[in-house]
Specification:
Blueprint lengths: L2 H23 L5 H24 L4 H27 L5 H29 L1
Helix pairs in contact: 1-2, 1-4, 2-3, 3-4
């Protein structure tokens, strides 16, 4: 599997995991629902921006979309950490998805950095 295809598949799978987690969070009223909405927006946006990047018309457009995907991955990581730190979801239940979020941030940071370097 090529690197581009792999990141697209990984972020799609990540988004499905986020959707499942948010469905569970929405069953509880109040704070859980509010955090679920924030998490759902950022967590599903990562892959959507990567898809847009792969349809970009120029290298700067590609870099811009991948940078947005990276920012969304970082935001998602924040919401996951907040869910655990505030005891909304037990830390053990978030370990795998938080690890994947961290890995996606690292991969996207590398993609953006390499793309910028190859541009100049």
């Amino acid at each position: 599997m090529t690197e581009q295809r792999e990141i697209r598949e990984r972020t799609f799978e990540f988004a499905t995991r986020i959707v499942r987690l948010c469905r569970a969070l929405e069953k509880s009223p109040g704070v859980s629902r509010t955090l679920a909405n924030q998490l759902l927006r950022s967590g599903t946006s990562v892959g959507a921006n990567i898809e847009e990047a792969h349809g970009s018309h120029s290298k700067p457009d590609f870099i811009a979309k991948m940078s947005i995907a990276n920012k969304e991955a970082r935001e998602t990581n924040y919401w996951l950490r907040l869910l655990a730190a505030s005891d909304v979801v037990p830390l053990d239940n978030l370990t795998d998805i938080t690890d994947e979020s961290n890995q996606l941030v690292a991969i996207l940071t590398t993609i953006v950095k390499r793309s910028r370097e190859s541009k100049s």
